[in-house]
Design a protein that fits this description.
270 residues, alpha/beta, Rossmann fold, three-stranded mixed β-sheet, 14 strands
Length: 270
């Protein structure tokens, strides 16, 4: 199967909806007219999973993707599917970071999930992929983009940018400090730890601004989000894995009464 065909398939969609999107329901289920942003939208599969759950409650959904071939498939998915789920779908063909201008991205193939500003290789655990190609793309600051769009509040933002997450947060520092981004889901793991970043650093950064942090948690009788409360060194990741973290200003709505996908108990030490 060729690479382009692989990324056209939707076989990951049910898994994304079940494991990454559905646990967001207690945090978003009663919101209406939402503004959401997908930073690192790739070909739009994650946005499709999200909008299949929350499209009817979303007024604007902005997808940010810098890689030209990915963006081409993102536009195709948007025209064929996403605009039917949410009329307010928008695409920004750019990177998002800590300053406006241009930035170099390393990548392995035209259509890819591994494009990275920070690294010229990607550790997948079972193998290391050499990102031997590079391209210069425009970069935006989220604070500038929020002002340009005239957005008062971002209800939800997802960030998956292969270790460049802190640069995205630095570029949205004003919005985060002002509490204008209510919920942020982002990837954390080997792409950050290889550069010396720690979960403690992210935990402290968001706690200073009033956010609570939850981590993906799968156990025998539970899958969903578990609050890190309090943080301990046992929460630091090991090995080459990655996980999704949610930081939230509002927490889960106490009126939610569906399947249990959020818990307040800390993850036991390993």
């Amino acid at each position: 199967m060729n690479n382009a065909r692989y990324f056209e398939l939707n076989h990951h969609l049910p898994k994304l909806q079940l494991l990454e999107v559905f646990p967001l329901v207690p945090f978003l289920w009663l919101r209406g007219g939402m503004v959401s942003i997908d930073v690192g939208a790739n070909t739009g599969l994650w946005s499709e999973a999200y909008l299949r759950n929350f499209g009817a409650r979303t007024a604007r959904h902005i997808m940010v993707e810098p890689m030209p071939a990915n963006a081409e498939r993102l536009r195709r998915r948007s025209d064929n599917v996403l605009k039917k789920l949410c009329a307010g779908v928008e695409i920004r063909e750019a990177a998002m970071g800590d300053n406006a201008g241009d930035v170099v991205i390393h990548f392995d193939s035209d259509v890819t999930t591994l494009a990275s500003v920070r690294s010229a290789s990607s550790d997948l655990g079972h193998t290391v992929v050499n990102l031997s190609r590079s391209i210069t793309v425009p970069q935006l600051r989220l604070d500038d983009e929020i002002a340009r769009l005239g957005v008062e509040q971002v209800d939800f933002m997802k960030v998956d940018v292969e270790g460049y997450e802190q640069a995205v947060f630095d570029g949205s520092a004003a919005a985060i400090a002002d509490g204008r981004i209510r919920n942020i889901l982002f990837e954390f793991g080997v792409h950050q730890t290889v550069h010396g970043e720690t979960l403690a650093g992210y935990f402290d950064f968001f706690r200073r601004h009033g956010y609570r942090m939850y981590r993906s948690h799968r156990a025998r009788n539970f899958f969903g989000l578990t609050e890190i409360a309090p943080y301990t060194p046992a929460h630091e990741p090991t090995g080459s894995g990655v996980e999704m973290l949610l930081v939230t200003l509002d927490g889960p709505d106490p009126r939610y009464s569906g399947p249990r996908v959020v818990t307040r108990q800390p993850v036991p030490p390993a």
